[in-house]
Design a protein that fits this description.
The complex is a heterodimer of chains A (about 220) and B (about 725). Chain A has a single domain (about 1-220), classed as Class I glutamine amidotransferase (GATase) domain (Rossmann fold), CATH 3.40.50. Helices cover about 20% and strands about 25% of the residues of chain A. Chain A has five helices and eleven strands, in the order βαββαβαββββαβββα. The longest helix of chain A has 11 residues, at about 65-75. The termini of chain A are close together. Chain B has three domains: about 1-40 and about 190-365, PurM-like C-terminal domain (Phosphoribosyl-aminoimidazole Synthetase, Chain A, domain 2); about 55-190 and about 425-560, 60s Ribosomal Protein L30, Chain: A, CATH 3.30.1330.10; about 560-734, PurM-like C-terminal domain (Phosphoribosyl-aminoimidazole Synthetase, Chain A, domain 2, Alpha-Beta Complex). In chain B, a hairpin with a 4-residue loop joins strand 15 and strand 16. In chain B, helix 7 (about 100-115) packs parallel to helix 8 (about 135-155) and helix 18 (about 465-480) runs parallel beside helix 21.
Chain lengths: ~220, ~725
């Protein structure tokens, strides 16, 4: 199992993601200018403020050579996990439906939240260790994490089983539509979420619940 | 070029200082030279009113790797690694423009730390504002918190701790002190001294613009007053993305051994970094302003030399490695230009192409500024105002709720949730979960605890005792985390040192800092002085902010501050002698007056050791030191954090001669509220560590019997009061 973690200028959580990946395989950084992914089995687009995110979160990163390669990799069915800024980049790149808007509070928020795992649907859904309804305690930290899509699109992704995670009742930290914390593409191989599973892989820092998300993807590849 | 003799006054130099410059140069300075002298001879750069006092501080210790004089201090953490740290103020810029002022304060302290070759791993901040019912204070608080978050979150360094106090004397002149902690391999660290005649001087990072011109002399070294709006152009604008690239670039350059030395550009920009590097290395330096990448082409040489544009670093590079340095900078998309060279002239020469536009001896610039003796005079009694917001006869229950809801005591969750506290995967104790932030250091197989503290109100009551308390408070916070102090940094925020009362406060505070550090054996490895913090109503509370770093063997062994188990016993440990002098309660009653009891440093140190060892041995369920609001507030905080009540009988304290009110709400050093197994708590009793059993954890109410003042408060009600900060504030601005 070889993970690739994309690194843009302005990425913040790439080393943490690398560490989390290494708990279920080998991992290496992919510099944003690399057009080839070098035979990785799965890709993580990590959190941070790619290129400063001054225009709009993820708006510039989607045009990077590495993201062109990631789009091809995803189209070929390769597993891609976007976390926080990575989720924003994947939405900007149209690899995932919807968009992430400024938090309802208009403030950055860093808080441990509970996520509820949704049932998996879609034609090529990866096998999961998670049971629908399982609760994961994972930190969220972002200023632009309010998931938004037109109502019809929300209905559609719900019907397709594309909602991967919801904030537990009363814990939505940003005003996301329908408490959605993470979504996947129709094929099921591209997953994005705002909370940070890479920061929940060690009891010493608060939780190990995020590890399961990495293990799921590793299990699919295996 | 000659200079109008009044020009130097506008730049903040006295006539005598100007005459001294003329004497040292052997001629009148030209405009470029005068601008450079005025900055380097400003209080901010030359410490001319504080340097003599600072010589009292102990700076040596077995674990010290770098001490004062470098960009930051550093202590040995084992396995060849060092922890570097420093606290610095950005008060006046924040009082003028809080968002950018605070943001660039964070940016500046980060550069100080990575200038050593250390990767920043934590930010803490210490903030002071006027009372929260003032619109200005809410504006400043909101802007400063957003600014700190903007910079720290964007650059990927966690903000793990800090403190905020609200007191009327900071109404006009808020304080924004930021502390950064970094980790470095000791053999990859660099010093700021320029070395190697003929070596190239390379300016890296952002281009140079007109922002922040004269910040050090105009903003940082004079009192605030009317017309501060017009000073906005002297506040710099921060760009955390630029700094993120610069940080990674510099660390890669150091890892590859491509730099001889490195220095950040902070106050006074190129002027101070070039002159100080040359001074530290005992060499000369030549800078060609024509080679400095500019934002505006028509900038004058003096503007280029004094610009405080952010996100810039100055490196010294051997000529053969310049190309390699430029290539690494290009990889990180960070600007780089060779702008000068190290010389053996002992002079700072400023060129514009072939033309010499400034030529001064390094020594005159850096060490030539006269150092002044203060004329301290103890003021008569309490020189600050008093305002009563709580009636003296209020019942204990109402008093507790008023204290918990007082913004200085209340939970700061509203603020710290705006900061990323987890990036970096080291944060073992997040804000408010323990008395100190705890960060894992897997490189050395251990962990550090970090705390920042300084209660200006208590220092105002007694500058000596109050400053000793600031050091002890940090030591106590570290003890609760199971950590032993390694070193200390400080930021001395005071009023105008040319006035007798602030001069006295400064003198006494430095003595307190020196005595406490000497007695505890904790070296002062760096610091910063911020003077002239005054508003129209007079000086701020004298505010020495102390930042302390300690070591613990295992990040998992620190104790939380919240109760953990129903049925646990609760004890008070330590030589705690509560007094209402200078307390939060006395403030709410509008009865503040000069004077504090003198803390017994040795006794507090013994109690800290007992708590530290108990925490490390896993004997405690929780540990929380008694601080603002006294035992009642400490108990309430431990209870709220756990969602568990407690029943308490304070008669053991009354038996010591305390009044009920002192026992409940009195403050002082050396008190720890511990919970855990009863027998284990009793086993902690030892010399200097008296243990008083007070009650036990359980239920959903805080029940306290204190002589004639028994009362009960449901935890939910206490929480409502304690968590009131956001609700009182949000929506008030923007």
């Amino acid at each position: 199992m070889l993970w690739g973690v994309v690194q843009f200028p302005g990425s913040c959580d790439e080393r943490d993601a690398l560490h989390a990946c290494e708990l279920s395989g080998e991992a290496r950084l992919i510099w944003h200018e690399e057009r080839e992914l070098g035979g990785v089995d799965a890709v993580v687009v990590p959190g941070g403020f790619s290129y400063g995110d001054y225009l709009r979160a993820g708006a510039i990163a989607r045009f990077s050579p590495a993201m062109e390669a990631v789009a091809e990799f995803a189209a070929a069915g390769g597993p891609v996990l976007g976390i926080c800024n990575g989720f924003q980049v994947l939405c900007e790149a149209d690899l995932l439906p919807g968009a992430l808007l400024l938090n309802e509070s208009m403030r950055f928020v860093c808080r441990q939240v509970d996520l509820l795992v949704e049932g998996f649907g879609g034609p090529e859904t990866p096998k999961s260790f998670h049971e629908p309804g399982e609760r994961l305690s994972i930190p969220a930290k972002h200023g632009e994490g309010r998931y938004w899509a037109p109502e019809e699109m929300l209905d559609e992704i719900e019907a397709n089983g594309q909602v991967a995670f919801r904030y537990a009742p009363g814990q939505n930290p940003n005003g996301s539509a329908r408490d959605i914390a993470g979504v996947r593409n129709e094929a099921g191989n591209v997953l994005g979420l705002m909370p940070h599973p890479e920061h929940a892989v060690d009891a010493m820092t608060g939780s190990t619940d995020g590890l399961r998300i990495f293990e799921d993807i590793a299990a699919v590849v295996a | 070029m000659t200079v109008e003799t009044s020009k130097h006054r506008e730049l903040g130099l006295t006539d005598a200082e100007f005459d001294l410059i003329v004497e040292q140069l052997g001629r009148e300075p030209n405009g470029v030279e005068l601008a450079m002298f005025s900055l380097l001879w400003s209080e901010h750069c030359a410490y001319k009113h504080s340097r003599k006092l600072l010589r009292r501080l102990p700076t040596e210790g077995e674990r010290v790797v770098m001490g004062p004089g470098e960009n930051a201090g550093a202590v040995d953490i084992g396995e060849g690694y060092a922890v570097a740290f420093k606290v610095e103020s950005h008060n006046h810029p924040s009082a003028v423009e809080p968002f950018q002022g605070a943001a660039t304060g964070v940016g500046g302290i980060l550069r100080d730390v990575f200038a050593l070759g250390a990767r920043p791993i934590a930010i803490l901040d210490s903030l002071r504002f006027g009372e929260l019912d003032s619109e200005r204070s809410r504006f400043l608080l909101d802007g400063a918190v957003r600014g700190i978050g903007h910079y720290g979150n964007s650059i990927g360094v966690p903000t793990v701790g800090g403190e905020i106090y609200f007191e009327a004397p900071y109404e006009h002149n808020c304080l924004v002190n930021a502390m950064c902690v970094g980790i470095a391999k000791q053999d990859e660290m660099v010093r700021a001294a320029a070395a190697g005649v003929g070596n190239a001087v390379v300016l890296m990072g952002a281009s140079t613009g007109r922002d922040g011109i004269g910040g050090a002399s105009v903003l940082a070294s004079a009192e605030l007053g009317d017309g501060d709006e017009a000073k906005r152009p002297t506040v710099q604008i921060g760009d955390p993305f630029e700094e993120s690239k610069l940080l990674e670039c510099c660390l890669e350059l150091l890892e590859k051994g491509l730099l001889v030395s490195l220095q950040d550009l902070g106050a006074a920009g190129l002027t101070s970094s070039a002159a100080e590097m040359a001074s530290a290395g005992g060499v000369g330096i030549e800078i060609d302003v024509a080679r400095v990448p500019l934002r505006e082409a028509d900038m004058e040489p003096f503007e280029i030399m004094v610009s405080e544009s952010q996100e810039r670093m100055l490196g010294v590079v051997v000529p053969a490695k310049v190309a390699e340095v430029l290539a690494v900078c290009e990889k990180w998309q960070t600007g780089a230009a060779e702008i000068g060279a190290v010389t053996d002239s002992g002079r700072v020469r400023v060129l514009r192409g072939e033309e010499v536009v400034g030529d001064m001896p390094v020594e005159a610039l850096v060490d030539g500024c006269p150092l002044y003796d203060l004329s301290p005079e103890e003021p008569q009694g309490w020189i600050y105002s008093n305002r009563a917001t709580l009636a003296a006869g209020a019942p204990a229950e109402e008093t507790l709720l008023a204290l918990l809801g007082s913004p200085s005591v209340a939970s700061k969750r509203w603020a710290f949730e705006q900061y990323d506290s987890v990036v970096g995967s080291r944060t073992a104790r997040r804000p408010e979960s323990a008395d100190a932030a705890v960060l894992a250091i897997p490189e050395a197989g251990n962990a550090i605890a970090v705390s920042i503290d300084g209660n200006g109100r208590r220092v105002a009551c007694d500058p000596y005792a109050g400053t000793v308390e600031a050091v002890l408070e940090c030591t106590q916070n570290l003890a609760c985390a199971g950590a032993e102090p390694l070193g200390l940094t400080n930021c001395l925020n005071f009023g105008n040192p040319e006035k007798p009362a602030p001069a006295w406060q400064l003198d006494r505070a430095v003595q307190g800092l020196a005595d406490a550090c000497s007695a505890l054996g904790v070296p002062v490895v760096g610091g910063n002085v911020s003077l002239y913090n005054e508003g129209p109503e007079g000086p701020i509370y004298p505010t020495p902010v102390v930042g302390m770093v300690g070591e613990l063997p295992d990040p998992g062994s620190s104790a939380p501050s919240a109760f953990a188990r129903e049925g646990d016993a609760i004890a008070l440990l330590g030589p705690f002698a509560p007094s209402l002098a200078g307390s939060e309660l006395t403030k709410l009653r509008g009865e503040l007056d000069a004077g504090l009891p003198q803390p017994d440093i040795a006794a507090v140190a013994a109690a800290c050791e007992a708590v530290r060892e108990a925490v490390r041995a896993g004997k405690l369920s929780s540990a929380h030191d008694v601080s603002d609001g006294g035992i009642a507030c400490a108990l309430a905080e431990s209870a709220i954090g756990a969602g568990l009540g407690c029943s308490i009988d304070l008669s053991p304290l009354l038996d010591r001669g305390c009044s009920a009110e002192e026992a409940l709400f009195g403050e002082g050093m050396g008190g720890f509220v511990l919970s855990g197994d009863r027998a284990k708590l009793l086993s902690l009793e030892g010399p200097g560590a008296e243990v008083l059993l007070l009650g036990q954890v359980g239920g959903d109410t805080l029940e306290i019997a204190a002589g004639e003042m028994p009362f009960a408060v449901p935890i939910a009600r206490a929480r409502q009061a304690w968590c009131s900060l956001g609700g009182r504030f949000d929506g008030a601005y923007r």
